[in-house]
Amino acid sequence: MSRHTHGRGRFRRAPARRVVVALVMAGALGLSACEDAEDDATTAVAGDPSPTADATGKGGGGGKDDEPQPTATPTDDGEESEEGSDEESEDESTETSYAVEPPAPFKGLSRADVLITATESLLDEVIEEIRTVKGVETALAFSVGSASIGGRTLTIASVDPGTFRQFTPDVTARADFVWERVAGGELAVDTGFDKKLVDKADMVRLGPDEDSPEVHVGAIAPLIKRSAGTPAETPVIQVLVNEKRGEQIGIQEQNAILVDTGITTPSVLKKEFEKILGDRATMDTLALEFDTFGQTAVLTGQSVSEAVGTFTYTNGPDGTINPDQGWVKEFIRTETVPILGEVTCNKGALPQLRGAFTDIVAAGLIAEIKPEQYAGCYYPRYIGRDPSNGLSLHSWGIAVDLNVPTNLMGTQGDMHPQVVEIFKEWGFAWGGDWNYTDPMHFEMARVVRPGGS
């Protein structure tokens, strides 16, 4: 995307608030942060959606993978009950505390032609300027961030259920239960969401830390995809939460816009959008027209995002990406740490990485780390080298893979428990704790500084 200065000063920072400082990397379509392929990565959660009726009660539809499906609701004894049960559980009361007003009824559809994503919150006047561009039918502002869940990288959108529904596929937009569940504090996930990320009670931990909030999956439904209607369509958003949930997990407020360009070809409006937005936002064309221009990578969790930065990027060959060189120059460093020697990582993660290895040395555990089996830190690519799977945390340079041969995906591994504990004390989450284990993998989940700062 071309650089402009016209749009500078058109953004606002969200007010500081107490948030879960976690990379809510909701691992998009089921590939590990460290593995390039996984055979059943796109198996749907809790079974396939019902093929018999759509959300309006009419038969037919687009096949079972295109039909929304509610999940069962939790009960007091931990078992699940069908929707409509009068029983209310402890988990349900927790969801209720994050409930918002019931969604507005379905009023019609808008087409998700363009996704604009910014590194900071967009000013109301900027959003209004986008709405008034000739050729724009509708534009809706919402919040979005990348998140780490069980070692997968997903995009989570924090939305107003009543207005956002119009941009989803028809069968989802008309499914009242989807939007009621989201308004009630539950998650809606795309039909391709990896079932390994969900426990037996349909709960998902929204972050890599043990104290990250667990939220119930209320609905499984087709969400917004790129190049909708083509065989190559890929999900753009994998998880929906309401705005209260978004605030809880630290998603940057109002940093995205969905645009319906009506009969106008989206690329025709590109230069006009660039004049308004400047160089702090990117335009991603979702309509069937051409490959995406540029995209923006923003982590949820305000402190972590500030420490490691946000960047724009374009696609490279073989599932790699090309991050903005300004961000690379500012944040990526090659430095020396104990045991491993020279590493290339994000400067925001290096103090914690150095602190962890220093403590490992002090604990007499040097032999537990095999430097020759270190598989890297900064490696800008998609998970599994597949754009539909979201960015690997290695793209930010905030994850390391250690002792690879004996700590492969899906195994218990042989990582020393005290090594794991030291990394956790220094703010790293461990892949060995995930539903589908990845014991080689440690990723920065919260900001910890030497001396407790």
From TrEMBL:
Q: Which Pfam families match?
A: Peptidase_M15_4
| Record carries keyword Signal | yes
Residue ranges, annotated region (Disordered): 37-105
Signal peptide range: 1-33
Q: Which UniProt keywords apply?
A: Signal
Q: Keyword Signal, does the record have it?
A: yes
- Give GO MF terms, alphabetically: peptidase activity
Acidic residues bias: where?
76-94
Coiled-coil ranges (or none): none
The residues covered by the Peptidase M15C domain are 389-444
UniProt name for this protein: Peptidase M15C domain-containing protein
Lineage of this protein's species? Answer: Bacteria, Bacillati, Actinomycetota, Actinomycetes, Propionibacteriales
